[in-house]
Amino acid sequence: MRSEEQSTAPPRAAVGPVVGRSWTRRARHLPADDHDCGWLETLPALEPAKRLERDLGVDCAVVGAGFVGLSAARRLALARPDWTIALIDAQRVGFGASGRCSGFLVDLVDFTSKMKPLARAGYVNTARWGIERLRSLSVEHEFDCEWDDKGWVRGAVGEDGMRFLEAWPGWLDEVGIDYHWLDNRGMQAVTGSELYRAGIRLPGYSLIHPGKLVRSLREILPENVALFEESPVRSVRQVPRGGLQLEVGGPSGLFTLSARRVFLTTNGYLPSQGFHADRVFPCFTFASMTRVLSAEEQANLGGETEWGLLAMDPMGTTIRRTRGQRLLFRNTAHYAPKLSISNGLRAKMRAFHRQALQARYPQLANIEFEHTWGGLMGTSHNSQLLFGETRPGLFTAAAFNAAGIAMGAAAGELLADLAVGRDSEQLRAMRALPAPTWMPPEPFRGWGGRLIIARKNAQAAEYI
Ligand SMILES: Cc1cc2nc3c(=O)[nH]c(=O)nc-3n(C[C@H](O)[C@H](O)[C@H](O)COP(=O)(O)OP(=O)(O)OC[C@H]3O[C@@H](n4cnc5c(N)ncnc54)[C@H](O)[C@@H]3O)c2cc1C
């Protein structure tokens, strides 16, 4: 065990049952998989899921097994080896945004430009800590997750993108991040495409295979974590005598999971569970992945053999050339509070991905997309994240926007620290970050959200 993971004899806070005013929240909608995520569907099949099929009492239940839940469960289990911990998910591990994301480990993100310098430094340092936690786990446990430190690029296609790009050196200097400016030819040398006017390379900034990373994190769960997959939580209840009760299950039966503490690490799904709808806004974004490129197609593509690009253009297209020699395109957003995505909508989104491919690689314009999927992000009005004990005994971290791998890993670990009373500089920095601002109730929230998303999609159309 790494020394920093050993308990530093914290005040043994948060171990007895929490007595609070009783309440119940029922899930209105449950996660629905579109069974077409390229990262996950191309991995070897998992063994059948172990479901929760009996009533159970544990010290702590962690609901949602993405980067946040996996990180929280592990950290808690190591800090409190005498605790029983249930990690529970409606789907398989990582089938939320975590296994569907684009795999960029980010610290300085666009929305931090709107933060005050102190808060920006706090955000960047916390996300960096998250990256280092993932990196050290990956090294220690020899994760096979295609970790690539070459440094991804940010690229600009249009006027707006160029304006943002030109502001970046200032932000990068302020927080001490090394970068290389790339002109059109430099961008072509990386991506093989003539489309980009300019860009910035961030050496040392990492890419991962998200599906493999979530599986690796699943494999290193400590023994005192019991994992239950395909076990949807249908309600959460604070019981009058203390503690919390979850109603879990489906057609084959409903079971009670009682816990002294509950972590709700369901991110974009949180509002559909009846929590924090006034702070966390569920927003889908979409990606498509091509089939494996032939050797001839790879040669036609030009550029480097493995790279990632985040757009500087607002809502522009994220691209990856993966280690397995597929191309991934991600763009566009959609509000779907019922959490399900129709095949028709995925087909429409695939057409945007095709447009992005054609604009960059006319020589590969007709190559097949093998997979198109949607992923649910938790967003917030001011792009800030929710973190803390939001009700007695209920711990939540959500609303990572499109930057939740590093920050999610950090938030999961620090949420565990908060629950066991382990103080640290990182925990204080996380707690000092601005909170998400209030959003109005439905139907105004939906109307406003749809309008903002439609405007952003329309704005992005120009750069796709
Ligand atoms: C397409 C896409 C690309 C992205 N790209 C990047 C990127 O490159 N870099 C980056 O940093 N971030 C990226 N993000 C954002 C990042 O993926 C998320 O912020 C992060 O994965 C959130 O992790 P999480 O653990 O909070 O949530 P999730 O991974 O969404 O996990 C929540 C879990 O809760 C479970 N759940 C929900 N409801 C219930 C219930 N009722 N009962 C039981 N379980 C339930 C779900 O099944 C799910 O597994 C991207 C997101 C998307 C969608």
Can you describe what's shown?
This protein has twelve helices and 17 strands. The protein has 464 residues and is of the alpha/beta class. It has a domain of 200 residues: FAD/NAD(P)-binding domain. Helix 2 packs parallel to helix 10, helix 4 packs across helix 10 and helix 4 packs across helix 11. Flavin-adenine dinucleotide binds next to helix 2, helix 3, strand 11, strand 15 and helix 10.
Properties at a glance:
464 residues; alpha/beta; FAD/NAD(P)-binding domain; nine-stranded mixed beta sheet; 12 helices; 31% helix; disordered N terminus; binds flavin-adenine dinucleotide
Brief digest:
By secondary structure, this protein is an alpha/beta fold. It contains twelve helices and 17 strands. Helix 2 runs parallel beside helix 10 (406-420), helix 4 crosses helix 10 and helix 4 (117-140) crosses helix 11.
